[in-house]
Predict the structure of Low-specificity L-threonine aldolase.
Amino acid sequence: MTVIDLRSDTVTQPSAGMRDAMASAPLGDDVYGEDPTVNRLEAELASRLGFASALFVPTGTMSNLLALMAHCGRGDEYIVGQLAHTYKYEGGGAAVLGSIQPQPLENQADGSLDLNQVAAVIKPDDFHFARTRLLALENTMQGKVLPIEYLAAASRVTREHGLALHLDGARLYNAAIKLGVNAADITRHFDSVSVCLSKGLGAPVGTVLCGTEELIGKARRLRKMVGGGWRQAGQLAAAGLYALDNQVEGLAHDHENAQLLAEGLLAAGYEVEPVQTNMVYVQMGDRSQALKAVASEHSIKLTAAPRLRMVTHRDVSRGQIERVIDVFTEFNRQ
Ligand SMILES: *Cc1c(COP(=O)(O)O)cnc(C)c1O
């Protein structure tokens, strides 16, 4: 039985076309700025998203770290959601490596931050306080899409207060597909954007940070400092270019499959959160370990958690989703 891995959309295998593109990519040393495929990826995504410059890096964590450190110096502060990846899931890197103080705020139910609260925690220019420099948002946030009007309002608030605005757009294209807009309609509200190629887009590795020439220049220096200067990285960039040209539209299928899964589990009596993109959250309480074990017998990989997250991606078919629903339905009968 083929394995159905719902733990994350990072688990995808490169498609046949992607492997071909990788195998034939022209290469050079990217630390010298001489990898033509990396240069093409950076130029391509910067232009698509409306930025002057871009930097290809190994991971989203590194991309966010470089962005935060390029926007903020020692003793500066950034405002961020309690649930944000940069705050909660990146080892506190901005604080450890950048001496940047986070000012966390509760995320609202829709994944956004209350902009009145944001304005209220911006510190006055006074030597008692850290200097508030940046607001970081995430989109999608746990599968939820931030409305375009909200992004415009966040942009206004940050501009009024002289803050920069960063987007952790690990799943930017899921948001764009869901809203039926160009990704640039989302990113134009931001000063910098980090886009993962390794999530639903299906590349094996890689994230691109986009911003101004000046910001990306700083990020390039910092990338070398943290050991992210890589050499013939063009094969990975080729995977990213292939994903951007061929695997964006397919995200819509992932969203349909997530919807199908949610409806099936609701019908089977589970408590399921409304689905917007490719993530399904189910309240499992103390039954998550037992479910994980049963699922594993059916070659279904899950993360055990009271609030169970399942993520659809290009390597999960509609038929496989139906199999998952059957296993969950049977489990709930016991
Ligand atoms: C996956 C992810 C990242 C980056 O993760 P890496 O594993 O370091 O590539 C950043 N932000 C969000 C929201 C993510 O989901």
